[in-house]
Amino acid sequence: MTPFVKTEVRIPPTIDIGAREFTLCWNKERLDGGSWKGELISSEEKIRLLPGRSNAATFETLIHEIIHEANYLIGEDPPEGQVSAKAVFITQALLSMGIAPNFLDLEQEGK
Fold this sequence. Notes:
Zincin-like
């Protein structure tokens, strides 16, 4: 059997979701002041992520926010718990395939 090799994937500062391009950025504070790990601001085509977490945890949060936008695009609004569960499962599958996300290309919001 061939040895399993992880593949680093540099997460770009912009991603496409549907026909829209979203900017990814770091920010320590949620817009409404609540606790958080990340947030989707669909009207600004932006996903804000909390810095200082592991790449795997940040990847799960990014996938969570992508799922929110995908649900919006197809006219669904599932409970937050379902979105979180889907994000966990998808992240687990991708990480188990050897995908190693790297967020070095993201910048602090406002720079």
